[in-house]
Here is the input.
Amino acid sequence: MKSDITFGQYVEGNSVIHRLDPRVKIVISLVYIVAIFLAKSVTAFILLTVSSAVFVVMTGISPRLILRSMKPLLFIIIFTAVINLFFMTGENPVFEWRFIHIYREGIINACLIVLRIVLLITATSVFLTYTTTPLALTDALEQLLSPLKKLHVPVHEFSMMMTIALRFIPTLIDETQKIINAQTARGADFTSGGLIKRGKALVPILIPLFISAFRRADELATAMECRCYTGGEGRTRMNTLKSKPKDWVFFFCILLLTAGIVLLNIFFPLYTVLK
Here is the structure.
């Protein structure tokens, strides 16, 4: 399972995107996500798709790795596409049979929404999880949220919690696969039977998984205490984050891309269908 689900894993590299300031990468990700939601026409989605492909090539990460990270969301992607395909009406019917009516607008809308989900996953993967280490992500989140410290918000603890959760996703996936293999070797069946039977079959997986997760959490807490970790108060960093001109150039390019999306929606709407 670990080989299929790669979300949360860092891929070591020395590309331009790998070397960007993690604070800038977080902001870039947010702006790029906004650009994806602003896209309303086919021309805008073409620009987004081309730019996403360029970003993937720049990172040097295999496209198959990013596609495998979408496996957990495959059901949601298919369900969303089916809903838009069969329940959206239009003026150009393509197929009609009894109560089933499929319109050209529904087909295009389904394709664009699926593409939107794929682009969202690609953006977060390229700019965050695959190209940013958990430690750098923690420091970046803490510094970006530092103004909230004046409101007595535990920014450091929040950033640490988010990063630890992200870091342990691959570990828990690997642990789940080991438990499934062990239970299968003991004669457990997870593929046959009805919904209730399959639900009961998950109990021998969930209990050891929860025990393992709590054990890992206890070991991590013990390790942090042994290293005299007491929170973010008074802590210093060995590596200080510094922005470089290339970070702001890349950020400016993303802003231009967002502006281009808006202009394409207004002046070159090849086919505007999303509402």
Observations:
- Strands lie at 93-97, 100-103.
- Residues 22-171+243-267 form one domain.
- The first helix runs from residue 22 to 38.
- The chain has a mean pLDDT of 83.
